[in-house]
Design goal:
CATH architecture of the largest domain in chain A: Alpha-Beta Complex
Order of helices and strands of chain A: HHEHEEHEHEHEHHHEEHHEEEEEEEE
Number of strands of chain A: 16
CATH class of the largest domain in chain A: Alpha Beta
Number of domains of chain A: 2
Oligomer: homodimer
Structural class of chain A: alpha/beta
Distance between the termini of chain A: 53 Å
Chain lengths: 414, 414
């Protein structure tokens, strides 16, 4: 059976069958699981409940838009036990198709367990933990995660009175923070995609045209990818506020508005390949270079110079705090201020965030950078009346850093 | 100052300024707040912490892609006190631009409070609750919500030892369940959008073409909307599994695969207008009608007849359980089985779900339907080897129900 057979749906069996389970092969998943269990051992965990959708995908290949109901992957510390997946019964087929797990480690619950029907999916989970002798274990859970609620936590405690439930938020995220060769390959491909996406965006934004048509072109380009490989939907929808809205960080397009001459348009977009991102920001001023407001040009000049210096400074052995401090020194003496963090780790993810919630380029983060870490260096400036963004997705290498995308760093004008 | 001024960014002031705050006017927001406070009074709540992004938008107009960090709206029971918004400092501008709240009720926290930097955003929140004399109150929180974590709950309890924190999950969702005239108008516009989106999808799916190009066309059409009004990104990305993947409910396109003759393609898509949805499903068989597998045609015929009967049966005064039972009676005697719920309430939403988590068309739900409720009647069938979907977004009316979209109910073939 070949990858092409699988792609074409010719696989008569069920495992391993689709998506990443095919792409990565058992070796990649084996390494991920091993590194996860090492961290579990450091924490004395006998089992880990993984509910973060990206972490579930990372460990098993699971790839369905089903995180809006309760689901998860349980990783027993015992390396002779395979992890198991649980979720809604109708999503079990998707788990069989996309994960490398044996079918008898894929459990689907009936709708009677659904939270929105008054059910208790944690009761289903605790039954399966009990079946595996994990009722009395020290169990790590992701206490700060979108897909594991406060109610889930209280119910799990009630359903497993003999277990010790401890906080293991971001344990798998930290395993993810150093990328493998295959992951870096996907992120390079995402870099090719964002180059095309950003080109499309800048060409589509014209005075008199509806904002929504530019946004539609952007999403189209994100999904189409390149001639040679496909894109995917990003974990953050296109952020492209214009005019007054360009003073804010996380607004998107205004569906019924038309661009006007003199608009500032912020573009925070990503290329995405098999859920691996290359996020990038640029800023467009909708008039000629001569008419750019002085303040905007000043911010742009200041940020672009500081960004270039900071990229040159990034490398292994330096800490996140070092990078942040260096950046602030570049700005020192100017009247441009950046009180928020300079950037963050990112990689494979689902909505609502491509950030990994591990490394932050901030004075308080003493993490030492390692080759294989990937950062979005994001010096966004949002003042009262306008904003400016120019950011780069980078890979920490043995020597310094590599930019995933090759795109001009400048303020774009008509 | 006119709506056009605001759209064009000519508003020199800050409030109320953009998005829905403009569209709905104070009357709509006033009614929403009043109905929310009525439900709070029934529960004896002195304040309500709203973290669900759709609920935040519903009550204040807030419209930013910032729910990946901690934020919320606090509604005091006291009608003389305005609600307040809190979130990350860089998102405060977006809150000032999109909500009707006075600027001194919009609080932004520095990055030092960020969860991912080891901070505690709940400490920031509890300080502001204390400032308003709400330290000792009976406080409702959304215990089962994506944007309020187990850790948040524990921290809030620690930071507010004199408060009584109780579960108010879905309180605002239930207020949302009956739509206003303006909301129904948006949903009718979303209905026009989904008609075009589904047309585009069915025309774009052809043997030999890459799945990603069809998906790109779909997203493009979702954002473009119609000639007269714009679309928006839906709360669920296009679900369009093909071939073997069409046996699963919540998979999306395969980025590098090409459609083949004989593929079954499931399409669960939505039109979206100002975050109000019109979700709809259809199924395409990629060959001529004569070559449709017998089993698939049998499922289609059975489901389509039962769906039509059930739509005729839906009306006010009947319960969700009645509808579910009627549907099951339509299937009785056939060999087509639908163990999962038949549908659910939906409306305005953000990722990851357009469902409202209130009414479910399931035997256990005794909710009586009321005019103004909106349901996605979704008889999806997923068998071992294939699936079939044909669903309708509907409005419960005084007489029965109205379909939001006018689109043929059939199995589509080449």
């Amino acid at each position: 059976m070949t990858a092409t057979d699988l792609e074409n749906g010719n696989n008569p069996g069920r495992q391993p069958s689709a998506g990443e389970a095919r792409e990565f092969g058992a070796g990649e998943f084996g390494a991920r699981l091993r590194r996860t269990r090492e961290r579990m051992a450091e924490r004395g965990l006998e089992a880990l409940l993984v509910t973060n959708a990206a972490n579930m995908h990372y460990l098993t290949g699971y790839d369905g838009w089903s995180f809006y109901v309760k689901q998860g992957v349980v990783v027993p510390a015992d390396e002779h036990m395979q992890p198991f997946w649980f979720g809604r019964a109708m999503d079990r087929s998707g788990a069989l198709l996309t994960t490398w797990l044996d079918p008898d480690n894929v459990y689907g619950y009936a709708d009677e367990y659904l939270e929105m029907l008054g059910g208790d999916p944690m009761a289903f989970l605790s039954e399966h933990l009990a079946e595996r002798g994990l009722s009395r274990c020290r169990l790590g859970v992701e206490m700060d995660n979108y897909w594991f609620s406060a109610r889930d936590y209280l119910r799990l405690g009630r359903d497993m009175p003999d277990a010790e439930i401890v906080d293991a938020t971001n344990l798998v995220n930290w395993v993810r923070s150093v990328k493998s060769a295959q992951e870096i390959q996907y992120m390079r491909e995402a870099g090719r995609i964002i180059e095309g996406v950003m080109d499309t965006a800048i060409e589509s934004i014209r005075p008199g045209d509806h904002e929504r048509y530019a946004a539609a072109r952007v999403l189209e380009a994100q999904i189409e990818g390149t001639e040679h490989f496909g894109g995917d939907f990003p974990a953050i929808m296109p952020l492209m506020p214009a005019s007054r809205r360009a003073a804010a960080a996380h607004l998107t397009f205004a569906s019924d508005r038309r661009y006007q001459s003199g608009d500032v348009v912020l573009l925070e977009l990503a290329g995405c390949r098999h859920h691996y991102h290359a996020p990038m920001s640029r800023t467009v001023y909708l008039d000629t270079r001569e008419r750019v407001p002085k303040r905007l040009m000043h911010i742009a000049d200041t940020v672009l110079e500081a960004l270039q210096s900071t990229l040159d400074y990034i490398g292994p052995g330096r800490t996140a705090a070092d990078i942040s401090q260096y950046w602030q020194e570049c700005l020192a003496g100017s009247d441009v201020h950046k009180p928020s963090r300079l950037g963050y780790a990112y990689g494979m993810n689902y909505v609502p965030d491509w950030g990994e919630h591990t490394v932050s380029l901030h004075p308080s983060d003493q993490t030492e950078l390692e080759p294989g870490m990937t950062l979005h260096v994001m010096p966004g400036i949002w003042e009262e009346a306008l904003g400016f963004e120019c950011s780069e997705p980078i890979l920490v290498t043995e020597q310094g850093c590599e930019r995933f995308a090759d795109f001009p760093q400048k303020l774009f004008t008509l």
